[in-house]
Amino acid sequence: MSEKQETETIPPKDPSKLTFESAFTRRRILASYWLVILLAVPLWWSYTSISRLSLPESRIQALAGKQWHSDIRVHVKSNVKAHPVDAVVSDVARLLKEDLKESEGVSIQFVTDSKSSADTYEVTLNTNVERASLRGRKLTIGMLPDDDAESIESSRLRLASVLRHLLVPPPPAERSNSPQRVVKYSPRYRVSFTLLNEDSASGKAAYTWDMQQAFGAHLGPTIDRLSPLHNFTVESQVQFHAPLAFSPKAVEHEGKIVHGLTHEDLTVFVNSAEWTLSSAVSNDPVLHFVAFIPSKEHDPLYILDDEGHPTTSNAFILPQWGGIIILNQHQPHLNMFALRPIFQTFKTQLLTLLGVADLPPAGIQLDNNEPFSQWQFDALMRRRTMENVEESRDTLLSIVKLVNQIQNMPVGKDVKGDVLGALNALEHAFEVGSSSPMKAFKYSAKAFILSSKAFFNPGNLGMLYFPAEHKYAVYTPLFASIAAPLVAAVVREFLAWKKARREGLAERPKTD
Amino acid sequence: MANALGMYRTVKRLGIPDSNIILMLADDAACNSRNKFPGCVYPAAARDLDLYGDNIEVDYRGYEVTVENFIRVLTGRMDSSVPRSKRLLSDDRSNVFVYMTGHGGNEFLKFQDNEEISAFDIADAFEQMWQKKRYNEIFFMIDTCQANTMYSKFYSPNILATGSSKLDENSYSYENDMDLGISVIDRFTHYVLRFMESVNKTSQATMQDLFDMYDPDKFASHAGVRSDLFNRPIDQTLITDFFGGVSQAEVLAPEEEFYYSSTPEGGHQQESESFTHVDSATTSGAVKSNNDEIHGYSDLLSVVQDLQREPPKRDTTGLFRTWVSSGLMFALVAWVSMRK
C-alpha cells in the first residue's frame, strides 16, 4: 500500500527528460547557435568575395582615341641672298610635311621670333660653311650662293633632310635591319663593365685597369647628359678565368695562324653559364660592357667576315644586351691611355643601345666636345616620351579590358591608386605635350612606371578558376552536416512550442 | 621528370641560355632513396644519356612548383623580391615555348598531386601576357592524358598549341625500366625529342615537319594541333623560332676618331626567347608516369567527364540527391528526437 502511494506522489523519472532541462534554456542555446551563424555570414561573405574596385574606365577610354604629338619650333635666319627666309621656310616645310608620317607624332612649326621659347631651334644659313655645325640648339649650315634653280633646290633638299634627321630621326627600323637593337625604356639601368680574362694563368692577361678615371673622363659626360632620362648605376669588375663555350676557328692570315670568330660564334660568344657579368642585387635591366682578353691559346682573336677573313673591327654589339670589345694587345695594367679607345667604343655602344640617333650622314660637326648634341638628346627624349605615352595608354586599356573580361580578377586599393596616378600623369603629359617636352617626358615616364606597377601588382592575380561542381564539393560536406541538425532542431522546437500553446489554450478556459 | 628534362636539354642544346629557361620541376627523382642510380635521371631503359647530368639549373623545385607560381611566372605578377632568374623577362619580341607534362584530365593538369591548373587558368594567363605584350608568339606543348583539352580554351592570338592525346585518351609511357620498376618517358615526348635530335641551330625544319611526324600508332593516342590562333602558316614556321636562341650580333666598325661617330653595320634582328617548362610530376613515385597510375586516373576522370558532358541531368539528379539525403537526415533526426 505504502509503496503504491509513494509511486503515485513521486512520478517515475522520464529518461528522455533531464532535470535541468527547460524549454527556455533549450531555445536560448538554439538561438545562440543561429546568432553565431548569422553574425558569421557577413564575415564569410567578405572573406570569400573578391574585392574589385571600380576603375575610371571612361577617362581611360577617352585617352584611347588621342593622337600624341609634340610641337617643334624652328626659327630660320638667312645670311644668303639666294635663300630668303620665307622661301626657304615654305619649301622646307613642304618637304618635311611630305616626309613625316602622322604616326611619328611630331609637327614642325617655323616661327619668326626666336625669343618665344627656350626650346626653339635656331637655324642659320650661311655661305662659306664647309661643315654644318651644332652648338646647343643652334645649327649653322652652308647653302650654295648661286641662284640658279638647280642649286637652290639641292641646297634646300639638303637642309630639309638634315633637319629631318636631327629633329625626327627615322625609326631605327628604317635605317638598318636591326630594329630591336635599342633597349626598352626603363627609368633605371645598371651599367656593368667587366675586364674579362679568358685565362690569366696562360700568362696573357690584364690584371688591373684604371676604370674609374677612364669612366669619368670618357663616359661621365655622356651619363650626365642622359641623366634626365635614366638613372644609371655603374659597376665594374675584373675576372681572371672566363672560358669560352666554343673554340674559335684557327685561320691563316698574313702568314700567321690567327683565331677567328664567325658571325655565328658572335651570337653565342657570351658564355652565360660560366660568366657572372653583373650582380643580381636588383631587377633593373643591365647593360653589359665587356673587354675580353683571349688566352695565349686563342691569341690573336679576330672577328671574321662572311668570307672567313679577319676584319679590322674588334668590337660588336649584342642587341639589347650590351657591347663587347676584344683586346689582342695590352699591358698587364691598362692605364688611361690604353683605356681611351676601349671606352670610346663603350660610349658608342652605350649610345647605340640607348637609342641616341646618329648624326645625319652629311658631315656635321659638334662645336665643343659634347658627348652628343642637344638635338640628338631632344629627339631621343621626344621618342621616349611617345613610346611611354603609348605604352602606358595600352597598359591602362588592357587593365580595364582584363578586369572586365576576367571576373575573378581582384582589383585592390593599391592597383586602383596606381591606375589613377598613371592616368593623371598621362593626362598631364597630353596637356603639356607641346609646350614643355621635358615635363611631358617626366609625366610620361611616371605614367609608364605606375601603369606597369598596376599591371604587375602581385595582388592582381586572378583567382584560379573553379568549376561550379568544385564549389559544391567543398561546401556540401561542410555545411550540410551542420545545417541539417540545426534546421531540424528549429522545426522540432517550433512544433513543441505550438503543441505547448495548444495545450495552454486548451487549459486556459478551464482555469478561467 | 625525364620528359621535362629532355625538353630542357633540347632547348639548351639549340642555344637558349639558362637565364632564359625557367624550369619548374618536382625534382624528387634524382636523389630519391628509391632511385637505384643516385643523382641520375635516364630517359630510356638503355640508360645511355643522363639528363640530370652536370649542368642543370632548376628554377622552381619541389613545393615551389605550384599553380600560383606558374601563373605568376607567366603573367609577371611577382613580388618585387623575386630574383631575375625566376622571372619570365619576355617582351613583345619574345617567342615563348611552354611545355607542360604530368598527370591530367579533361581540362586540367595536376601539380604535385595536391593542386590542379585548369585550361581556363592557362588561357587567362596567356591573354594577360598578350595584353601586356609579353610574347610575340607562344608554342604550347603538353603531354598528359587528354592533353588536347588543355588548349581548347585559349583565345589569345599567336598561339600554336599541340598536345599528346584527345579527350578520353591516355598518354602512355614509352618504356619501362625494369631495374627501377617504373616507366621512364612518355611516348609523345620521346618521339618529339627524337625528332628534335635531327634539328640543329641552323636547321630549316618547320613545325609542319614536326606535326607530320605524329603517328597515332606509335603514340597510342591521337596527338592534336591547334593553329587557328596562329597567324603564320605552320609550314613556314621554323622549329628554331621557338627552340633556338638566335640572338644576333652586329659588328662595329673600328673607332678611329675622337668625336662621336657610330657606324654599325651588318646588324640582324634579335629574337630573345624565353622558355618555360613545367613538370608537375607526382611526389609519390620516384619518376612520374607509371602506367598503372594513369589507368587509375582514367577511372576517376571518366566520372568527371560524365558529369560535365550532361550538365542538365547532373543538376536535377544532384538536386534530387541532395534533397533526398537531407530529407533522410531530417527524418532520422526527427524520429530520434520525437521518440518518447
TrEMBL record, chain A:
The keyword Transmembrane applies. It comes from the Eukaryota. GO terms for cellular component: GPI-anchor transamidase complex. It is found in: Endoplasmic reticulum membrane. InterPro entries: PtdIno-glycan_biosynth_class_S. Pathway: Glycolipid biosynthesis; glycosylphosphatidylinositol-anchor biosynthesis. It is a multi-pass membrane protein. The keyword Glycoprotein applies. The chain crosses the membrane at residues 29-47, 472-491. One of its GO terms (biological process) is attachment of GPI anchor to protein. Belongs to the PIGS family. This is GPI transamidase component PIG-S. It comes from Cerrena zonata.
UniProtKB/TrEMBL annotation, chain B:
The keyword rRNA-binding does not apply. GO terms for cellular component: GPI-anchor transamidase complex. Pfam families: Peptidase_C13. Pathway: Glycolipid biosynthesis; glycosylphosphatidylinositol-anchor biosynthesis. Residues 277-289 have a biased composition (Polar residues). GO terms for molecular function: GPI-anchor transamidase activity. Residues 260-291 are annotated as: Disordered. This is Glycosylphosphatidylinositol anchor biosynthesis. Keywords: GPI-anchor biosynthesis, Signal. It comes from Cerrena zonata. One of its GO terms (biological process) is proteolysis. InterPro entries: GPI_transamidase (IPR028361), Peptidase_C13 (IPR001096). Gene3D superfamilies: 3.40.50.1460. Belongs to the peptidase C13 family.
